[in-house]
Amino acid sequence: MDMIKNIINGIQKNHNFLLTTHLSPDGDALGSIIALGLALEKLNKKVDYYIDPSIPEKFNFLPKIQNLSCNVLDKQYEIGIILDCGDINHLYDRTILKKCNTIINIDHHINNQNYGNMNYINSKAGATGEIIYEIIEFLGVELDHNISKALYTAIVTDTGNFKYSNVTSKTHYIVSELLRIPIDAWKINKKLFDEYPRSKIFLVKRAIDNLQFLLGGRLAIIVITQDDLKDIGCSPKEIEGIINIARNIIGVEVAILLKETASNEFKISFRSNEYVDVGEIALRLGGGGHSRASGCIMHGNRDEIISILKGIVEKKL
Amino acid sequence: MDMIKNIINGIQKNHNFLLTTHLSPDGDALGSIIALGLALEKLNKKVDYYIDPSIPEKFNFLPKIQNLSCNVLDKQYEIGIILDCGDINHLYDRTILKKCNTIINIDHHINNQNYGNMNYINSKAGATGEIIYEIIEFLGVELDHNISKALYTAIVTDTGNFKYSNVTSKTHYIVSELLRIPIDAWKINKKLFDEYPRSKIFLVKRAIDNLQFLLGGRLAIIVITQDDLKDIGCSPKEIEGIINIARNIIGVEVAILLKETASNEFKISFRSNEYVDVGEIALRLGGGGHSRASGCIMHGNRDEIISILKGIVEKKL
User: Fold this and answer.
1) Separation between Cα atoms, residue A118 and residue B114, nearest integer Å
2) DSSP result, B111-139
3) Whose CB among A211, A286, B6, B269 lies 3.0–4.6 Å from B257's, allowing a Cys bridge?
């Protein structure tokens, strides 16, 4: 709590801020930055936003979303605030570290490297947005329509629509406070989780066509080749979430997705449901991740790779 | 608020209770009844549960779920509490109306018929479970693991996992209170929303195979025949949710599902996204429902029916 007070103090007595986050910003990164930026602006601070412009279209409803990429060349800031970025190597642009007198690092990733001059890391928060809610409260800034929308987006995305095990009593408490302002949360929710282009449906069909059950149905594998994507007219980004088709089937313990990224090269994603540590499997194959969700790269033809993976998973079941 | 106090009073001064709900109980009905029943038992009341035994397997994790079907023959109760049942014709068994000296009707459906001796209807509640939370609080019963689990289930099912427009600040506030008790909400959530038998996946594939886009992609239709179900080895119940495959596609305003129930007989479901009042369409065809979700029965062959529906929808777009 002392650290959060120091951060509040640092914010209060400075005027020039740069807000940034990790590459390929997600809903939590975007929502957190926008909410904090709006709150700072309400305190008459000068705020620049500096974000990787590759923002998925579905976030277009967010306030300020078109104005988050500034030119930082020849600029210097009193405070740089880096949000939701655990690994400094994933920062959008490391040159900002020299452009800011003080770096404040605010995050909820458990393995955050504490690279800031001030670091507030709360790994019990389901989203960085939850921490930003607290900071805004400490700053004495009242929630408004735009801030609530941004924070709702941050929290709902990083908790998988309140589904993940990172959701706590506090998560729902904060959302109940946000929804005191009528923000049509269901519309945001629909946009983020329940809208997809037609091609996604045909990708789902292809994934089911390619679905294999091995080891008595406890291992389910989906392969998506470059030809599949070309046939369907899908971008590789649309593969997000496809692995859950396999994971959610009753009886499946391990789900694996092989995404062909080049000839004889596959990006492999692993998910497990109850007990297999797929983080360990990915690590052994040169990748990484968590016990229930991990990934790696493998080379070879698909049948060879599937055979290797089958062998590894079999020993874990 | 007076009515809720009368009800609390009625509960406090009586001893013998029968709790019941509508036919084919859903998560809100089950969770509400179990939570209220457990609370009454904590107050040393005698509680009988009387529920349509056709309970979907996914609710098996709920406390008391195996003990909800009692024999009410030759019994008489001081109080019968009917939960989550707007229409008395949907009550599991109307004979109980004579077996209870007083009927308390607690519900959140806006069109509730006020058929009880005491009626507490709050259509602003996202689930009957939200009302039961309040009643338990009024009764002064502390939440415990089983009550929290039951109420979480009630609320999460009737709000579509916090997605629907019936979710309010209060919904999240109540859930934040429930989650003060460690109930592994994510496991309940997974069981209710993210687990399906293998056959469901093949039904999804068949639905996509059968998907038709009409009227420039603004109308999407899925047909599921009895042969489809037979081929796949699916029960008709698994069709639940399939219509959303069509509804969620960007550009679709109206989604229609034709479920063949007999030769030349189809159960038709309608969904819309933004502006078409599908309640009106269903009503005109002898069915009913809401402006964004409705249904009816139609007779004829599928192509004729599709052609009729296309004509009706075209005028509304």
Assistant:
1) 60
2) T----SSEEEE-TTSSSHHHHHHHHHHHH
3) B269
Write out the two tokens for A40.
Answer: 């700072």
H or E element: which one contains A297? strand A293-299
CA dihedral A70, A76, A79, A85 (to 10 degrees): 50
With a CB cutoff of 8 Å and minimum separation 6, the contacts of B21 are B29, B30, B32, B33, B51, B52, B82, B83, B84, B85, B91, B92
**Contacts with A, B 149-188, CB within 8 Å:** 161-165, 167-173, 175-180, 184-186
Number of domains chain B is built from: 2
Domain residues for B127? 2-193
Question: How far does the CA of residue B226 sit from the closest CA of chain A (Å)?
Answer: 21
What is the reported pLDDT for A2? 86
* Paired sense of beta strands A16-21 and A46-50, if any: parallel
Q: Are residues A128 and A277 in the same domain?
A: no
Same domain membership, residue B166 and residue B23: yes
Size of interface A-B (CB pairs under 8 A): 109
Give me the pLDDT at residue B1, please.
65
pLDDT digits (tens, 9 = 90+) for B127-180: 999 999 999 999 999 999 999 999 999 999 999 999 999 999 999 999 999 999
A38-75 pLDDT per residue, tens? 999 999 999 999 999 999 999 999 999 999 999 998 99
Please judge whether A201 and B165 are an interchain contact, meaning their C-beta atoms are less than 8 angstroms apart. no
C-alpha to C-alpha distance for A313 and A106, rounded to whole angstroms: 37
Cβ contacts of B180 on chain A, cutoff 8 Å: 169
Distance of CA B246 to the CA centre of its chain: 21
Shared-domain flag, residues A222 and A88: no
**Residues in chain B, total:** 317
User: Which parts of chain B have pLDDT scores under 50?
Assistant: none
Question: The tokens of B308 are what?
Answer: 């009729």
Mutation pick from B206, B208, B245 vs chain A, by most beta carbons of A within 10 Å, is B208
Confidence grade of residue A311 (pLDDT, cut at 50, 70, 90): very high
Task: Please give the ipTM for the structure prediction.
Answer: 0.94
